[in-house]
Amino acid sequence: MKLTPEQFVAQSYDYLIVGGGTAGLVLAARLSEDEDVTVGVLEAGEDRTDDLLLSMPAGFPQTYEKPEYDWYYKTTPQEGMGGQVHGWPRGKVLGGSSMINYQLLSMASKEDLDNFVRLGNTSLGWDDLLPYYRKFETYHPPGEDSEWPRELSEYIDPSLRGSNGPIQISFPGAPMSVTWMNSLWPKVCLELGHPSALILVTVCIRGLSTRSSNVSTRPHDPRRGSSLGAFNQPLMVDPKTKTRSSSASAYYRPNASRKSLLVLTGALVTKVQLKQSFEDFSAQGVEFSSGGKLYSATCNREVVLCGGVINSPQLLELSGIGSHQILDGKVECLIGNPNVGENLRDHIGTPNGWPNPELFAKVTDNLKELLKAYPGDTPTEREIIELEARQIFNKTEADVQIYGVPGGCDTSNLESPLSLFGNQDTGNYMSVYAWTTRTFSRGNVHIKSADPTEYPAIDPKYLSHPVDVELLALAMMHFQELTKLDSFASKLALGTDGKPILMPCAAELNTMDDARKYVRKTSFTTYHPIGTCSMLPKEKGGVVDSNLLVYGTTNLRVCDASIFPIHVQGNICSLVWASAEKGADIMKAARKA
């Protein structure tokens, strides 16, 4: 039976979780394990766990731009990209973006997570989070009857993987079958000199050089701390049911009947109710709208925001926590903190599909000169850039990710995520993408008014830092080497001039200037935004402390991707799950203290 708003507000809760998404349902499941604790979850979207477009692993692209599934945010015009607006799909359903993402499970590097500690945190380092990666997952190696070639997954060390967690992890099989690209890509990587490749999509490379003779010919499990090399990414797919494994299916559905857990969907939280107590404020509950009516829900212990990179800072500002300058004339500022909504970072990528190489003899010198010229405007930004720069020049860290896709790409309309991974032109195409692993450009998310239904202004400031442009341009030039490889060139159709036929959105790049201009025209989000409620010391730009508590409050926490202060390589869903598992233990420990 679907819960009504009246039934929900009739209860009193120990914990009120705002956002039943990727992180929120992890907290709800773990906190409600204690029968003496009452947990309430408010989610703006509906429960669509059984919807075929969401449960079917290959159905998710059809959810984009549809309001019943997708918030369909848009960025402000991006100055670094000629004023282009980018579409930002985010899951507006129970389970959040874990219901509409690409289901790739990757791993942050040890350096990535230890950077959190170097910046002043004590909760999210490599040693802190590694046990929680194992806690959230159950890894299924390919079986004897699997269509996935077992040799392409042998880099996985099962002893480093989880064996009884709620999220099911496997390698692709029906209905996400192995394609011709799966057999081609390993050969391509070997010919380029990268470590032996295990495909579906990702190759992490460093230095963007054409050869990497000093690396092993066989990559090791990224759970050992480094993802340098060519790896097949396992997927968040249950191999038994052939369905998506998400926060809704894995954390909520098995626990939905608990008396200690109540979930209300179709409920948009409009503000956190704060009460001043001495110098700090305490969260008494939240206000939310449902069916055109306003309601109030109260809590005894804590309110936890799990709205993600956009909704969590938006709700803090709507509740009076943020910059005086931003809130002036919109909302009464109760807790002044100019860091709310700042430090927005996102991976950005560029596709190409083909020819003509340029040597990279001065790659290192060029990047060092750019970093010297653009060191950052604040002490914290300079510290973060220094950490990111150290990883660029670290021989064990990947500078970019390369994805090979057996399909076309259309970058003519970056506002439409539906159009990006496909093409309307005659012919079959293959695409190769380069995505940043750490992003030097930094933007923000802020409310435009006191109206909670008005989308905030989202400005990632794509390519505002020249190092992002340079890295992607170098990757584009690196791609030209592909057409020299027999294994790759044999798959390409040739024009009358004897050159490979380019996709309409692609370009022949002969110089680095060509590549830089191309990057500024065709790059787009990879859907990995972080940072708008950063876990940092307040004086360094923090919004929450190492225990997830919002500065200036006694019992308001944030737990989602917005707390990550610096970017990590790869898809971030796994890090959200691990940090939410860790967050649940932080909250349990606080309750017992």
From TrEMBL:
Highest taxon above the source species: Eukaryota
Family according to the record: Belongs to the GMC oxidoreductase family.
A Pfam family this chain is assigned to: GMC_oxred_N
Organism: Rhizodiscina lignyota
Sections of the chain in a coiled coil: none
Cofactor(s) the protein needs: FAD
Record-listed FAD binding positions: 93, 269
Listed name of the protein: Alcohol oxidase
Domain Glucose-methanol-choline oxidoreductase C-terminal: start-end pairs: 440-579
InterPro entries: FAD/NAD-bd_sf (IPR036188), GMC_OxRdtase (IPR012132), GMC_OxRdtase_N (IPR000172), GMC_OxRtase_C (IPR007867)
UniProt keyword terms in alphabetical order: FAD, Flavoprotein
Ranges where the Glucose-methanol-choline oxidoreductase N-terminal domain occurs: 13-348
Molecular function terms, GO-annotated: flavin adenine dinucleotide binding; oxidoreductase activity, acting on CH-OH group of donors
Segments of this protein annotated with the region Disordered: 212-234
